Amino acid sequence: MEALPTRARMYVTGVAAAGLLCLLPALPLPSVPLTRTLPSVSGPGASWGAVASFAVLYAGCERLARSRHLGAPSPVGTFHPVLLAAAFLLPPSAAALVVLPGALLAPVEQRPLLARRIWRAGRLTLAVWAASRAHLAAGGREAVADGDVPAALGAAGASVLAFCLVLTLLDRGILAPTGGVPFRRGSRAPRPEGRRTTRRTTWWGLFLRSLAPVTVHGLAGLMMALLWRSPYGPGAALLVLLPMCVSWWAFAQYHRERAAHQATIRALVQAVDIKDGYTRGHSERVGQASTMIARELGMDDERTEVLRFAGILHDVGKLGVPTRLLTKDGPLTPEERRVIELHPEYGHEMVRGISFLGEARAAVLHHHERLDGSGYPYGLAGGQIPESARVVAVADAFDAMTSNRSYSRARPVPVALEELQRCAGDHFDPRMVEALVRAIGRTGWHPAVTAEDAGRFPGPPGPPVAEPVGEPAAARAADADADAGPPGVRR
């Protein structure tokens, strides 16, 4: 655990020690067979055979989940149904003992390996122990033994809440000593992300996010427990795992596909950044601003994700523009400017075959159109411009104004928002502008990738260059591709 900060090592050690205390009453276990007649609630009532059966089953499920066939995206707690079934059938200390083989022996892909194994075992031991205690207190043992499904459901609900609550509090606790990034390597500080990081890691948010999947696992665990105690015996209980394996396989395929999508987008953006270093990091920030607008407009998660892709890929057409034009040391001729203005069409040609992008492809093509019809490449006006393109146009102009450009210093966020509002109706959709104003007013602007992060400007920018009279700053920012260039040159 030498790679962990001192406070993180102390925290993990404390969790592991608490888990060991929960296991002590199970050692040694009495030789009471786990039969269909449930033992007394007050007694331990479990055998080594029953504990070993659950432990082997859980370890096998964990190993299978991390195999190539399933490829689980989550490193911890894949098969909670087995653990919860043990919590419904075994005394607290015996149920907690089930965790150890699977948690300690399952593969770990990231360092520090020992710390991750100890942390996984400790947190799950405490969670299963708490779940079993809650189930015991709610009278779940008698309900499972009698086959009283309504009563068993109530007790299982209490157990799931306890299980989820303990996991949430432990997971939230590890974020503090590791600076918001669990088990970060070395002493490298995580990238600050402002209020978004704080909001995303509150214990209540973590609890709500994990409650639904844990509830589903709890229902599967209850089915296993009821079948285990039924005349059909433990063999029937194993049948519950078959649909769980199928659903997990489908879930893993979804995550694989999503990871492939992200890799495709990342490769395209990196290629643009390499070719046009003066706007490095711009794509990620436009994607972030587009996401804020989409959420403020109440768009669903799937469409919001598509608009994030649109913002990230809006300048991918620069790959089709000659590098000499992007890096030209001097003003562009009208012919050269027309070549650069072809980049939306180049970008659309590049991404139109990528089906998962959906309406993001239209945003790539039309994000330089203006509401008054003075934009390019087709001079669309008003409602002719796709909604996704209107979102990206506002996000693009906002980031261009609030970033250090070769011809001017970054404008303060309030000044940039005022400029967008002034141009709303002529160049930008007022709905999109007001959505961005409301979103930033509520959460602030905390870009995950800044120009300095990308190494775009190693030193302070040069003095501002005089701007043309009569052309709004936001309009020029919306056409930022023609403004990019070597420091000190206004295109």
Brief rundown of the structure:
By secondary structure, the protein is mainly alpha-helical. The chain has helices spanning 6-23, 48-65, 80-89, 92-97, 99-105, 113-137, 140-146, 149-175, 195-200, 203-229, 234-238, 241-275, 282-296, 301-313, 323-326, 334-340, 343-351, 360-366, 387-402, 413-423, 430-443, 473-478, 480-483. The protein is elongated and about 85 Å long.
Overview of this protein structure:
It is a single chain. This protein is mainly alpha-helical and 491 residues long. Helix content is 60%, strand content 0%. It is built from 23 helices and no strands. It has helices spanning 6-23, 48-65, 80-89, 92-97, 99-105, 113-137, 140-146, 149-175, 195-200, 203-229, 234-238, 241-275, 282-296, 301-313, 323-326, 334-340, 343-351, 360-366, 387-402, 413-423, 430-443, 473-478, 480-483. Helix 14 (301-313) packs parallel to helix 18. The longest helix has 35 residues, at 241-275. InterPro entries: Cyclic_di-GMP/3'3'-cGAMP_PDE (IPR052020), HD/PDEase_dom (IPR003607), HD_domain (IPR006674), HD_GYP_dom (IPR037522). This is HD-GYP domain-containing protein. The chain crosses the membrane at residues 44-61, 82-106, 151-170, 206-228, 234-252. Residues 279-401 form the HD domain.
Question: What tags apply to this protein structure?
Answer:
491 residues, mainly alpha, 23 helices, disordered C terminus
Low-confidence stretches: 29-45, 71-77, 184-201, 451-471, 480-491
| Helix content bin | 55-70%
* Separate helix tally: 23
Shape descriptor = elongated
Largest sheet: none
Succession of helices and strands: HHHHHHHHHHHHHHHHHHHHHHH
The chain-level structural class is mainly alpha
- The chain-level mean pLDDT equals 78
Radius of gyration: 29 Å
Overall strand count = 0
Distance between the termini: 54 Å
Strand content: under 5%
